[in-house]
Design brief:
about 280 residues
């Protein structure tokens, strides 16, 4: 039994290490390519380690591309998207979980049904609507909708609020607390795991978003980092191949989500587990 157990543990570690290396390989290739010359990117056999290491790729990138402007725009969108999602999802989740009103289940079913509608179906009608009210070419189509509802996050928070004992609210009402006080002082502090998951998901969506910024942000001064990577060749017309610069900007863009993952991975997993306790 001891030998079988030891063999099983060794096999498990081997599989986990192999899977970890497989997962980290794209990130390593991204960083490695960002430090290579154009010639070394396409050599065969593959050059796994850049030789020479060309740090000038980053200095030249910052000299020719408004990286700080793109970062600022991305942070603005990410911030308001996160705040809006937390605002609408927490209120909506609490309402569907705790309040009793006519048509609650029907409204909640309609909310969930919108999750199954692909973005490609609503893309043109929504664009026409925003164009009619003059929002195209601004940040508004990207930062206002999260304040009006986030179906997936609302569903997740509803599931979490349903796991909180009703007796807590009953005791608070006996002590004279109203709905706003119960929500802000009792429910939200208890919902920290679910709110953490919602925050992380919203940050990643706002930071990595590409299609919607591509549709609505027409001016260069409003572009995000994702649009900057996509359109990098426009800023270096004399450079025949900008792959190494694209990799450098992609590395800058991917670092914050990676750091966020390592900092908040335990809270994220805990929030997912606790959210799924009750259907």
């Amino acid at each position: 039994m001891t030998k079988r157990t030891s063999f099983g543990q060794v096999f498990t570690y081997i599989v986990l290490v192999a899977g970890g290396l497989l997962m980290i390989m794209p990130f390593y290739w991204l960083v490695s390519t960002s430090l290579k010359t154009i010639k070394n990117i396409y050599v065969y056999p593959i050059q796994w380690f850049p030789d020479p290491i060309r740090w000038q790729n980053y200095t030249e990138l910052f000299a020719q591309v408004p990286v700080f402007l793109y970062t600022r725009n991305t942070l603005i969108i990410t911030f308001f998207n996160t705040v809006g999602t937390l605002f609408s999802a927490s209120l909506g989740g609490y309402s569907f979980a705790r309040l009793r009103f006519k048509g609650r289940d029907a409204v909640f079913s309609i909310l969930l049904a919108t999750v199954m509608v692909p973005f490609a179906v609503t893309m043109i009608p929504v664009y026409v609507m925003f164009s009619k009210i003059g929002w195209v070419g601004t940040f508004l189509p990207l930062i206002v909708p999260p304040f009006l509802g986030a179906p997936i996050n609302t569903f997740m928070l509803r599931q979490f609020f349903r796991t909180i004992p009703m007796e807590l609210e009953d005791a608070a009402r006996i002590d004279g607390a109203g709905r706003p006080r119960i929500f802000f002082q009792i429910m939200l502090p208890l919902a920290k795991p679910a709110l953490t998951v919602t925050t992380i998901q919203s940050i990643l969506w706002g930071w990595n978003g590409f299609l919607q910024p591509l549709i609505y942000l027409k001016k260069n001064k409003l572009w995000t980092l994702a649009l900057g990577v996509n359109s990098l060749g426009m800023f270096m017309p004399g450079v025949p191949d900008t792959t190494h610069f694209q990799m450098a900007l992609s590395t800058i863009m991917v670092l914050p989500p990676v750091i966020l993952y390592f900092v908040a991975q335990r809270a994220f997993v805990r929030g997912i587990v606790l959210t799924g306790l009750k259907g």
